[in-house]
Amino acid sequence: xYKGINTAIGDCSIVPSxxxxxxxxxxxxxxxxxxxxxxxxxxxxxxxxxxxxxxPNSLLRVQxxxxxxxxxxxxxxxxxxxxVCDLLLKFVExxxxxRCYRALHRYYNNPEAKNxxxxxxxxxxxxxxxxxxxxA
Length: 136
What we know:
Radius of gyration: 17 Å
Number of helices: 6
Largest sheet: 2 strands, antiparallel
Low-confidence stretches: none
Helix content: 40-55%
Distance between the termini: 43 Å
Mean pLDDT: 75
Structural class: mainly alpha
Shape: flat
Order of helices and strands: HEHHHHEH
Oligomer: single chain
């Protein structure tokens, strides 16, 4: 199993939420898929393995900041409403200066990290419903 990831019997063997996976994937890819329509496509390879595995204990404290942020977003939505809050969050949702993002990015992309994720690949596949559509 991967170094630094301590899981006990009964613990999650993958990330506990889709939100956590999305944060991990965004940090792993450096946001290169933001705004890309992957409708009819899917991503495989080391990117999926890396971002689906639970985080090491050293990163869980940093991830708590993300949880606090999500609670604040929910409270903002109650106060301001969904439309106003979501409009505001478009400008701050993917902040690469965020402490949590930086820690995750270093974890996945640093050759000196104690994992092999930095050399992982990202495989993107697209499926078409017909040969003509696939050749278009």
